Amino acid sequence: MSEKEESCPVCQGDERKSHHSEKTVRELINRMNRIEGQIRGIKGMIERHVYCDDVLNQIASAQSALHGVSKLLLERHMKSCVVEQLEAGDTQVIDEVLQTIFRIIR
User: What are 9-20's pLDDT values in tens digits?
Assistant: First the structure.
């Protein structure tokens, strides 16, 4: 194991893991469970031949909810994982985060 891997709690060999608080994990899971329910509801609407505009509005709502999860996770990532990696001397994390942000906003 390299010196970087030993000093950085996020880097464990080739597999990196987040280490968010249980509160954050619960919040993210709760949001994802609600979104999962929305998606099942949209599928049911399509199966019942619900009017297209109504289905599209529900899809937009689900997309907005997913965007909210992304924003929350990005915020927590920046405030914990990224800070810790920078403190450990890993400046490559900046490029990684920028690529992620660019992917999110396209």
Answer: 444 445 778 888
